[in-house]
Amino acid sequence: MKSIKFVYLFEEAEAIDKKLLGGKGAGLAEMTRMGLPVPPGFTVTTEACLHFYENKKRLPKSLMEEVGVNLKKVEEKTGKKLGSAQNPLFFSVRSGAAISMPGMMDTILNLGLNDKTLEGLIKITSDGRFAYDAYRRFIQLFGKIALGVEEKEFDQILNQTKEKTGAKEDTDLDGDHLKDICKQYLGLVKKRTGTPFPEDPMVQLRLAIEAVFRSWMGKRAMDYRKEFNITPEMANGTAVNVCTMVFGNMGFDSATGVAFTRDPGTGENILYGEYLVNAQGEDVVAGIRTPKPIQEMKKEMPKIYREMERTRKILEEHFHEVQDFEFTVEKGTLYILQTRNGKMNAQAIVRTSKEMVSEKLINREKAVLRLKPQELEQLLHKRIDPNFKGKPVAVGLAASPGAASGKAVFDADEAERVGKLGHKVILVREETKPEDIHGFFASQGILTTRGGKTSHAAVVARGMGKPCVSGCEELRIDPKGREAIIKNVNIKEGEFITIDGSRGEVYLGEVPTVDPEINKDLLTLLRWADEIRTLGVRANADTSEGAVKARQLGAEGIGLCRTERMFNAANRLPVVREMILAGSKEKRAEAIAELLPMQRSDFKEIFRAMAGLPVTIRLLDPPLHEFLPSAEELAEELRKLKEIDTAFSTMENISDAMKFLDPSFRESLGLLDHVVTDIVEIKEKRLDKKLIRKQHDTLRKVKEMMEVNPMLGHRGVRLGITYPEIYKMQIQAILEAAAELIKEGLDIQPEIMVPQVCTAQELKWVYQLVLKVQKEAEKQYRIRIPFKFGTMIEVVRACMRAGRLAEVADFFSFGTNDLTQATFSFSREDAENKFLPLYNQRKILQDNPFEVLDVKGVGRLMMIAIEWGRRTKPDLKIGICGEHGGHPESVEFSHSIGLSYVSCSAPRLPIARLAAAHAKLKEKEKKPLEKYDPDVFGIPSV
Ligand code: PEP
Ligand code: MG
Known about the structure:
The protein is an alpha/beta fold.
């Protein structure tokens, strides 16, 4: 059997193979072959690490032999020798997996030091202090990592010596102190391990390699992999990089530092970084001394600075990516010790992507892929200033991104009143209802104590692009006391609070924020994304302003216009209530006739804003009781009315009683006299009685309509079939609005969509109604009114009967909010702040399915529906309009299962556009649809 090669010299590694050599090893190999000044060395592969674990933590038999052969070559290159007293070679031994896991595994520096080589080091450097310092660092690091001696025992010795000698810092210790510390350290190791500190450098090397391998399965590393879902497919085992030591602390012609090839904060094309003269890397990390900006090197070490500039160019031209590299200068010679792709903020990624395309370093596809849709989120909303260090007072659900400050107010009317006075307002409610809509308009942001990410507050706020924190259960609202209580803090109405809807956090007072940054570079990047993607992107919008904004942000139509929002405007709600409460058909017809022109003009405005693009209008969906006051509110009002009625009866007699009063009071009681007269008049008109009767009727109706599970009850198409007048009016309004604009010469593309459908018969019933109304409208306007007719797929049965539904429907749109609710039997109103957090924490569920589409359950139902739907109608257009339509992973999934478009709230459009482009570009890595298995989509298996 051919033996496996476990060790590669840096210059030897042919193809760059991160899985085999680890990221660091691959980088060192690559830089060596590019001719950059990398200290000589070799890499022990991740395969050796796997072998180690498969063989009871024993190194492969041939490994140390292979190490010995490669060591010879390094010795030849450097002219130094491991273990030599004259010209000693020292190594750094560093871990490095395929995926960077910063600080999670172990590293040993100055390996090769022992009593003999120490003498050599003293001779070469003529610096005893430096040599003993290196030795004590090595004994401590090796003792801890390879031999398992506790770090605090070394620290104790160091601190005792510092105390004894009066040294404040480590740097105050002289050579003799350090020599003494080394002696004590060696004694400690012998005491704890029972054997002397290993002097033989080859033994040191073997133990160090084993220790690095062990750190792959250390708690830190395992926790990190779990947290970031690093699977064995991504990184399996760590490599070990054995690299010649170079010292940045050999005097004032030596230095060490870290640099970026461009500014990672702004993306500016300049060398960026920090360095310290006469220091080791550790000193930079430990923060003992403050490093200098790299620009100072221009004056201090001009030759090195020029080399750094050259290195920066070489690195970028080779890696086609911004690099973050470590360097050391040893006695005037520059060495590069590591390079990796630089981590940058979103703003810097956008700028560098655009500029690197102009510089022909990367192509447009790469530029688009560099910006992750999640990172783009940072640029689209106001954020809490990253320099702000305060702590939130409470945490709820991150329901709609962005940060906002304002005066806390506890009802929508007050929000409107205070807002109109020009103040900033945060509407704080237990939960919101459609009738709170004017409060949303007046507010900077919304905070609720109940409800999840698809609750009314969350969905409406997202649609408006306003921040929202929902389900903040730590907060209790006292409506009577007009205050909110969090733990023991009372927030009085009118006091400032700040919410961060991107993180779900609530702060007291006005916290500084930074503005969103949609600049020209980002627009260019999004344009490139549009050129790449094949998945359509539409917006969920229900006002003409929303439609205009959506168009500006790149929407290719409206995928969901929720008509119920139009019913909630202050001037409409009373008419809608009349319609619902009407005792007779005639009365209902009157109310509906009043609503028709209003809806028609709504649709006209939206169509106009979207001329040339499709607009999907959904017929009324929510249960009607949502438009009525609650039974509790009504009962309370009724009680008050009755109290007034009783009070009126007693006051009637006051006039008579007054004549017994002292005549001198009479004049001042004149006002009361007036009041009494008014009361008598009210009584005669029986106004109070009428009102009481009306409230009684409303209460009765509300009780009649009450349902135990309203979201599974009288809503959607069921409502349309039982109250056909409502659907008829809406269809008429849609077609007439379209007709009027077509007559103006505009290209109008209405799409009528029916919610909550579970059987083809329901859909057929509505379709007949549409045809009837279309006929009437075409006759009236004397033109042809084209429309498309479709259904939402948000009920499990609809997925199973998709083949039949497609006989009637021109299009499907997945309502994944309800479909998720129906698939899991998790209430979308309650689950997210009741048990889902615990489910996520215990990894029972990896994600919140109301936020990240559950591809394994809901996704599979979608695939069934797509398959059967397209069997009936191959060109069936299929979209998604649930909240998942703007979530990057879900957009990717939507692309992979062949959806025609995603529809999301307007502010999320740039994210969806970018995610759709990513999905297209990553398509090559994915399985074809027929082999597609949800169990292997995504990383975690639930
Ligand atoms: C859905 O259920 O996904 C949907 C878009 O409809 P709504 O959220 O209005 O119920
Ligand atoms: Mg729905």
